[in-house]
Amino acid sequence: MHLSAREIDLRFEYRYHETYPKAITLVSEGLIDLMPLVTHQFALTNGAEAFATASNPAAQAVKVQIVDN
User: pTM above the 0.90 mark?
Assistant: First the structure.
């Protein structure tokens, strides 16, 4: 309602439209290895610790992964 009352037009741009198919192709062909981005792994039972790590800048987490073994 705030935008409507002030007659503000909000427009979005989807600029990554052609990026995802290219990225998926590179990963699926093995040209890019994503595993170095996974900096932390936690068991499903330690989910709370995983979220705490992901939200803590001091942990320097790039990608926190929760794994159900």
Answer: no
Angle at 45 between CA 44 and CA 46, to 5 degrees: 90
Which parts of the chain sit beneath pLDDT 50? none
Nearest to 66 by CA among 50, 55, 54, 53: 50
Q: Which residues, 6+ apart, have CB-to-CB distance to 10 below 8 Å?
A: 3
Helices (H), the chain: 2-5, 19-28, 47-54
Residue with tokens 């990608």: 63
Q: Judging by DSSP bridges, how do beta strands 63-67 and 38-43 pair with one another? A: parallel
Rounded to a whole number of angstroms, the distance between the first and last alpha carbons of the chain is 47
